[in-house]
Amino acid sequence: MNSLNTEAFTLFGQHILWSDMTGNILGLIGLVLGWRRSLWSWPVQFVSGLVLFAAFYGHLTGSAGKQAVVMVVALYGFWQWNRGRGGAGDGHISPRFASRRERAALVGAAAIGTVAVALLFTAFPELSWDPWPDAYIFVGTVVAMYAQAKGMVEFWFAWLLVDLVGVPLNFANGYAFSGFVYVIYGALVLWGMRDWWLRSRKSPRPVLEGAPA
């Protein structure tokens, strides 16, 4: 595990760690596969979390714990997408917009979760180097992955909001490769958002029982 935290190379004066590079490249691939609505998005995200968990375990307990949660959500996402395959008629899930109640639940969970996790990080400083932004990114990531598991177009908006804080925070804390990857994430999020948005408008709407087709 110590080898994961050794320096791979230096880029623009920033020291790039093997763990940071490997985990985030896998995360980037997972996002691309999510854009394509591929079931493989979830195993790749799981392995990404596993790599970062191994790198952080025994060094940054809070970061390792966050990756454990990410892996659990990845397993849930795989289960959900496996159940929903074929919903769009092409062997993949059918993207949709969340209902008002679901949007309110996502926003509420993000707000309450961020405060709760930030207070936990503040009470135990060894869990995080920057409690509030770190809590925001962690909870935002979990909310985004959950929305992705449900096939909601809003998951792209959640990722975009995470990126806005993730880029400067990663550069500030020496995880330069994560910062660069988050910039790429931002571009992919915009493309993916457009693709899912258009697909959600083309998806067949459910017909009520007894109603004319």
From TrEMBL:
<dbReference type="Pfam" id="PF04973">
    <property type="entry name" value="NMN_transporter"/>
</dbReference>
<keyword id="KW-0812">Transmembrane</keyword>
<feature type="transmembrane region" description="Helical">
    <location>
        <begin position="103"/>
        <end position="124"/>
    </location>
</feature>
<feature type="transmembrane region" description="Helical">
    <location>
        <begin position="174"/>
        <end position="193"/>
    </location>
</feature>
<dbReference type="InterPro" id="IPR006419">
    <property type="entry name" value="NMN_transpt_PnuC"/>
</dbReference>
<keyword id="KW-1133">Transmembrane helix</keyword>
<keyword id="KW-1003">Cell membrane</keyword>
<feature type="transmembrane region" description="Helical">
    <location>
        <begin position="136"/>
        <end position="162"/>
    </location>
</feature>
<keyword id="KW-0472">Membrane</keyword>
<keyword id="KW-0813">Transport</keyword>
<comment type="similarity">
    <text>Belongs to the nicotinamide ribonucleoside (NR) uptake permease (TC 4.B.1) family.</text>
</comment>
<feature type="transmembrane region" description="Helical">
    <location>
        <begin position="40"/>
        <end position="58"/>
    </location>
</feature>
<feature type="transmembrane region" description="Helical">
    <location>
        <begin position="12"/>
        <end position="33"/>
    </location>
</feature>
<protein>
    <submittedName>
        <fullName>Nicotinamide mononucleotide transporter family protein</fullName>
    </submittedName>
</protein>
